[in-house]
Please model this.
Amino acid sequence: MGELTYPPVFTNTLTEEFDYPKGDKNVYCTYEGDGGIPLLNFLRKFAFALRFDGIKLLLAKYLTPKSRIMFRRQITHRVLRIAPFLRYDADPYIVISKEGKLFWLWDAYTISSRFPYSERFAFQGDTINYIRNSVKVLIDAYNGGVKFFVFDTKDPIIRTWSNIFPSLFFPKAEFPTDLLQHLRYPEDLLSLQARVYATYHMTDPNVFYNKEDLWSIAQEVYIERTQPMLPYYVIVKLDKEIEFIQMIPFNPVGKNNLIAWLAGRCDGEFYGTLLAYKFPYVEPLYLQATESRMPELKKVIVASGDRLVWADNFSGAIHNLITEYRAPVTKREEVGIEEVGIHDLIGAALMHFNRYKELVGEGKFKEAGDELYKLEATLKRAAKQRK
Model:
């Protein structure tokens, strides 16, 4: 069973079955699974002859009573034939079990357009305002067996379908434990959630009403065309552990600088949870000559709160941001500590930013986020001194 296996095949026949080439010879095998339908008698042969290749099947001499016919081997056709009332992710993926068997995993959704007081979004040709990734479909690539496992028992729609077809759906507890580690966050679901989060990350009612902090999916150039980025899988270090996640970045609307990214986590107890990282607004400004297409960095723009400054490099921009009003080094006798000078704070801010870049380059986003928090705290201390 696969994504490109369309025609029917016959197994356990008198003809050897090709397995793979070996040098100038071929290696043959015999199918040992229980997939397909046995051609036990003439009536079955006649029925399948009408369905597929006509009189050729009736006259074939290589068939025996133990022969089987396997059809609908394309997994999309196979699954949709069984449960057409569910929606499916655009990208099924194949995994290997601890016994070395191959299985296809496919995420299935329940959807509705009638959920009260909920905004509608386009999804797979429909307009919906409710979606749940309630079902995981497991397809045996060798035998063709298909099982539907319910992973979200709180979804009322899948509970209804389970009551209608009680023998079709299996509980999550019966899902093979060794395959749980292969589950991925669904791509179509994260894409839809990112479109929603681009607006609904704003929690201040006034900011939300005026759409003052509206985001958009980051753009990429693909075959000389600019298009929104699709979610992609990466391995990163989060919470001191290396994780496999799916992520998608955001830009502020009308701008090309990174403002945040949203990740769907795939591992262990964190599977199915979302994680958002927000970045400060630091944007480089480049100039590009007409003849020589090499871009040249001219300015670095830094914003903090309602202040926006720029300089020839990052350290200069940070200096301009926090030294508009200089304050001398003083002693705060009431608490018994000495305030750090503005220039020391500039150095500390630059150190945290450089460390942040190193950690991002190493894929350690959790530690990089910690450095951003330290950078923010340093800038706030500097802001207090300028008053």
Q: What stands out?
A: Confidence is low (pLDDT under 50) at residues 325-339. The two ends are 70 Å apart (CA to CA). The longest helix spans residues 365-386. The chain is about 30% helix and 35% strand.
